[in-house]
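When time allows, look over one protein, given below as sequence and tokens. The question is which stretches look regular and which look disordered:
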Amino acid sequence: TLQAPPFPHSCALRPLATMPWRSRGLFVAPAALLLLLVCLAPDASEAVASGEAADPAQEGSCPAGLAGSAACLAAAEHASAAKRPRDGAVPGGEVGASIPRATIIAQELEELRGLSQLYRERISLLEELQATLADGVASGALPGRLPLAHVRLLQEPLPQLSDLAGVEEIQAAAAVSDYLVSKAVVRQEEEIAAIAFLPLRNTRTASAAPSGQVAMPTTLLVASQLDGTLRLFTPSGELATTFVAGHDTPLAHVAVSPLHDEYVIATSDVGGIIRVHKVSVKQRRISKEDRQARKSSVVDKLSQHLGSQVNVTVQFNRRFRVPNGTEGVPINVTAIAMASQQGTKYFVVGDVDGNFTIFTRNGTMHARFTSGNPHPIESLSVHLGSVVFISRGSWGFVDLEKMEARRVVCPRFEGTVLTAMVDSQQQARVLVSDNAGDIWVFNTQNKRQCKIEHRFPRNTAWAPVDLASIRGFALALTPRSSAAGGRSVLSALNMSHVGKKRDDLARAVPTVVWRRHGPPVRDWAVHKRYLQGDLVVLLSEDGLEIEFFEVLMQVYIQPQDDNFGNFKLPVFAVATVLVLGYQYVKGKGAFDPELSEGMS
């Protein structure tokens, strides 16, 4: 059995010795130092009262039962060391005379010299380890017993740790099913090459529809095939019409009119021939003969509201061709778009030589100029009057007023641009994705000056990234991502982070709102709608399936403060008094001169 060590009679914690070890075990470990100090305190106080120095090493005044113990000897050594004068101290000097003094700057310099020496030692050790690993791998003899897996890990190239974002920065904040709803899946018998949205007249400006008239769609999806066949679908996925573009060579590009006043589809082949088609959208109406036939029919009658309620017709408008090159060789068209400038509509055509050819609405060539880059024009993006082009990693604007191309170079940006488009909310803001998968936001003034306004965290999306802009958010699509197992990744990014500092409360919200993983995608299209959910359409990689989605996301708009709210009531009161006073005087009141003369 264990017995408690003896305690001096003067120890205030002596009752602890009478406790059983099972109960006392909870207090011995944390109270060891306190026990020693309290037990030594009475002897020290008696020594001080008698005028003698309480030095355990000199007088052997360790408490009874603790004499010769390690704790007592350590305490005595500490006390004797404390009484010995320090280096540079004068015995018998004043209190604090032995403490070295230095200015704050000198102390800071001394600390930095110490850190510098420590860093040099660590750098030397890391360089020695790096050289040892290189020599060991070259000679086949690994240093020491270091496993081969550890050697490979130390020599494997990795991304910059300083550029890696935290997991919380790139994680989706919500489930994709809360914001992205699948509306329809349309399967095709023939392969679709590309898709695009043809915007229709906005329902806000349209006249009020009569009772019983169905609402017209706000857009049509144009799906093109390589053989020149085009299909138009309503937002519900219903086939509206099908027509043939009429090209002799395979169809290469399709452009739609961004304006609502005229519905135009322009198609182009690789030979530079452009054909323009005009689309008419009306509500389907039943002729009098069909209506009379329905009434007189004795078979089961079908509702006239079954089937498509939209009558879409396409009519060929005109055909023109891009002029040949300097040697008479046909120009290979690489991109085509439709834009407008001050009410004038243009066809913008980019070719393989890096040149632009501008046509007016009637097909007349208006101008031809170079982009300043001999490489092909890869893509054209149009938003209102802004046309953004990309050519072999560089980008810029097409000025339709001066008929010139302006290349834009942003300081501190050294990546290769893959996608560039104008933000739908601010025309001076451009969204850009580079070959590393990073997404940037540039601020362009006068379409010449460029400044980096924001960069989303790394690994927010994976290259190659295609971008689209909706109200308050940016959509990023990776058609096929090796990081996602060969699947496509569609993400919604919060644009409220743009232009805000890191400590701004606006950046407390997550960067990625939601993220969808799905099968690989060949092409996609995005359409913004008013007072309705935006539309997103994905074309499968094999071109045989089109899926319609509706994006149900709203942006909080902070109400504007009414700076004159406190002055409204006094202003109204003063205005009322002035009006009443004016009417009183005008109506021959007390201040009327004629009235005052009559009284006299």
Summary: Residues 1-60, 86-96 have pLDDT under 50 and may be disordered. The first strand starts at residue 180 and ends at 187. DSSP finds ten helices and 28 strands in the chain. The radius of gyration is 42 Å.
